[in-house]
Amino acid sequence: MHKLIILVALLISLPAHAGAQSEEPLSASVQAALHKTVSDGAAPRLVFASTTDANIWMAEMSQRLEKRMPDRKVRQDFLKTVHYEASRAGLDPQMVLGLIQVESGFKKYAVSSAGARGYMQVMPFWVKNIGTPDQNLFHIRTNLRYGCTILRHYLDIEKGDLYRALGRYNGSLGRPEYPNLVIGAWRNGWAYPSKIGKAASAPLS
Fold first, then answer.
1. Beta partners for 122?
2. Which residues have C-beta within 8 Å of that of residue 189, sequence separation ≥ 6?
3. pLDDT score of 43
4. CA-closest candidate to residue 81, choices 107, 50, 42, 114
5. pTM > 0.85
6. d(CA 49, CA 45)
7. What pLDDT digit, counting tens, does each position of 123-142 carry?
8. Distance, CA of 54 to CA of 121 (rounded, Å)
9. CA distance 47 to 137
């Protein structure tokens, strides 16, 4: 565990970590469902049982993220969008924050050697397959919408197995290093009391 914490800490200063999400054929029904999901234009919002819970979560996460995102408005917009997109996809927002830390170190314009882009290091072929030409993967909401949608898609393929879904996301299916880094970042940097911070799972619509 000590070695894992060191690896996660070192990763923060590294360039984009993404491998290469594999471009695989999509059935017409899956393609249509994913297209509908990434095209929805509903405004991001925090998904909590009460405003008090939402404010507590925002204050806590904002404090943790401040060194990486000094601008308060940018930071709060980012966190609100992460929480909404993760919740909408039925993902834990804290896990998504751990993934972003590993993938891009919270760098909006990060680009991997494989060409993956933005906070969640989304491969451009996804826009061609399920999006529209005007969608910009460096746009905060577009990037987070695609990233959460893709991870949800992989989780469905893997019947809820997060380790295998993360491997698919990174293009390293079957190898433990990447899933361990994401889980480590999630648990060691972004864990939050479930009685307050548990996001409502929302079906994709």
1. 117
2. 8, 64, 97, 98, 101
3. 67
4. 42
5. no
6. 12
7. 999 999 888 888 999 999 99
8. 27
9. 24
